[in-house]
Amino acid sequence: MLRKYSNHRTNSDNIKLGSLTAFSAGMVNVISVIVFFSFTSNVTGYYAILAQEISKSNWYQVAVVLFWILLFFSGGVISNLIIIHGKGKWGGYISHAIPVFLEFVSILFVGVYLQFFYKDTLQETEFLVGALLFAMGLQNSLTASISNFAVKTTHLTGLTTDLGILVSMFTKKSNRQNRNLVDRFNLLLSILISYVFGGIVSGVFYNHFQNHTFYLVCFILLVIAFYDYYKFSKVKKIYEKRHHDLLL
């Protein structure tokens, strides 16, 4: 899921990556709305708010919104820098797993802060929202970079548009038999369903466990980070066993 890069990835690799990361993004977005009354999986609306606050000369609000946008942006920059410069040093899997680990740390920080230190002040809320936006910037850049821009999981605007285009294209029989178009449709649909399902799970989980929901998101990120390691270790053991049996 994280080991392969760009055109070496199969559609199955992208579906696994897209589904799990979209699930976590949906969870983060819903719980941030519940706790902070703010969306954190994308920055589209914040550009509109930025323009609005500038027009009103509300400079403090302008600074806060710009800070949020820059955190999402910096998450994307840092994630891709690690990928392109770390590949030669640590290999593909490690360089792809590091952004997931940074995302894990960011979301864990929010969960711990809410549980033990949060005083419900405006400044704290603004900072914690920024931490979640940074995490989502890391994730979106990671999935887009290693999948050759096939997978983006923190927002659904472009994805919904692409699905609409594909549905219209499938009105022609020749397109319904096009493997690339069908694979693309399956990928986008899996991301959409996972994102919505993640949001539902987050909302239900929050009703019972409150801010501990952030720890569930962290668990999902650990699954993403260590899935390939577990799979690689399992394949290696099978290979070693077969090699040992052949020698006997």
The gist of it:
Helices cover 82% and strands 0% of the residues. It has 248 residues and is mainly α.
Strand % is under 5%
Shape: globular
Radius of gyration: 20 Å
Class by alpha and beta content? mainly alpha
Tally of separate helices = 9
**Poorly predicted runs of 5 or more residues:** none
CATH topology call: Growth Hormone, Chain: A
Helices and strands, in N-to-C order? HHHHHHHHH
Number of domains: 1
Can you tell me the CATH class?
Mainly Alpha
Q: Determine the mean pLDDT.
A: 89
**Largest sheet, strands/sense/barrel:** none
- Ends: how far apart? 34 Å
Helix percentage range: over 70%
Annotation keywords:
248 residues, Growth Hormone, Chain: A, 9 helices
What does this 3D model show about the protein?
The protein has helices at 11-36, 44-55, 59-90, 92-116, 122-146, 157-169, 173-176, 179-209, 213-247. The chain has a single domain (6-247), classed as Growth Hormone, Chain: A (Up-down Bundle), CATH 1.20.1250. It is globular. The protein is built from nine helices and no strands. With 248 residues, it is mainly α. Helix content is 82%, strand content 0%.
Topology:
Elements: H1 11-36, H2 44-55, H3 59-90, H4 92-116, H5 122-146, H6 157-169, H7 173-176, H8 179-209, H9 213-247
